[in-house]
Amino acid sequence: MTDLNQTLFDRAAQVIPGGVNSPVRAFRAVGGTPRFVQRAQGAYFWDANGQKYIDYIGSWGPMILGHGNPVVLEAVQKAALDGFSFGAPTEREIELAEEILKHVPSMEMVRLVSSGTEAGMSALRLARGATGRNKFIKFEGCYHGHADALLVKAGSGLATFGNPTSAGVPPEVVRDTLVLEYNNIATLEEAFKLHGKELACVMIEPIAGNMNFVRASVPFMKRCRELCTEYGALFVFDEVMTGFRVALGSAQSVYAQLIPGFQPDITVLGKVIGGGMPLAAFGGPRAIMQQLAPTGPVYQAGTLSGNPVATACGLATLREIAKPGFFDALSARTQSLVDGLTTAAAKAGVPFSADCQGGMFGFFLLPELPHNYAKVMTSDSPKFNKLFHGLLDRGVYIAPALYEAGFVSAAHTEADIAQTVSVAAEVFAQL
Ligand code: PLP
Prior knowledge:
By secondary structure, the chain is α/β, with parallel strands linked by helices. The protein has a domain at about 85-320: Aspartate Aminotransferase, domain 2. It is about 40% helix and about 15% strand. It has a seven-stranded mixed beta sheet, sandwiched between helices. It has a four-stranded mixed beta sheet with strand order 1-2-3-17. Strand 10 and strand 11 (about 215) form a beta hairpin. Helix 2 runs antiparallel to helix 9 and helix 10 packs parallel to helix 13 (about 415-430). The radius of gyration is 21 Å and the shape is globular. The model has no long low-confidence stretch (mean pLDDT about 95). It binds pyridoxal-5'-phosphate.
């Protein structure tokens, strides 16, 4: 039988670099043919061959209600009838801003943009503009979008700043980006001692979903906060992935339960707040946010910012997930997946560790959870690839790379979880 995914992939490769519009979709890490999605509904999607999959990617996080949620769909259809884009303000932008601020009290104002990259890049500019400083810290294994200054890997020591991770990023542009090891308090303290007074911000993924699933430890998070406050640097939480995904109050609410009074200064959001449409945001205290144009000197703008159809989609999504009990049910479902996989791996004698929060999970083919990027990368990559293809062949779609997190939606049923665990048990037995 002709593989229609392969036919489409060959055709795509003629007109789109690598056949995809975002590199991870090309399956380079795991090999094989990417699935071209024909349609999706609830917890499933169907590929070009008509094959059905249980979807644990959910567009890399946004689809927290599952695909085609009827309430969201109706809101989008209604909004589309009123017009696609105006380039002028609408009441719905205020409603979405109010809804976001209601659940994330560290933010007093928020600016809507169209992608996580744009939000992260703008948050960095704002931090630099508001502090009048240029240098900043990020952590190895955290991804904050593909803006030049953020595409950086660690340099050879604390005195040297980062190296570009992409061709086309001039070394001068990353000269002020200091890349440190995640969860390492000693290097953080050392870096502040050396550069603290010149630091505009520390940017972090509080639960790093771009190295699968690695939590910032509570002592590390606490120290980041203390040092930022002491040296006048802003603490920027990149919650593009974790925002409204790990809890209604986002990852910062999880840390606030563990560290009394904890708050970041600036929060970056994306994914869930757009419900699958191009929408992202960044926000913080009024005094900082008013540094943005038109009230302040930090320039930032966008033709499609606050798009009326995207805001309708995001608003309907946030209102659904704010209903009582939503996150309890989602967390329980995710936990049951993680527990099931852990038990199945143990039965097959496969080294395995896993973690989850809300509707986000990660697992490693390692006996213990790793705490930084170097440890994540010791995961058994050939074994992961076998696991990935074993699951895929049996209709379970997880991220095609071992350094990516997974997502459970409200549309996943206990039966979906049981089916996934039973399929995984079969595959583990063959690893
Ligand atoms: N920040 C984090 C934590 C992300 O996970 C991502 C994307 O996965 C981004 C920023 C960039 O967002 P976008 O892909 O919407 O540009």
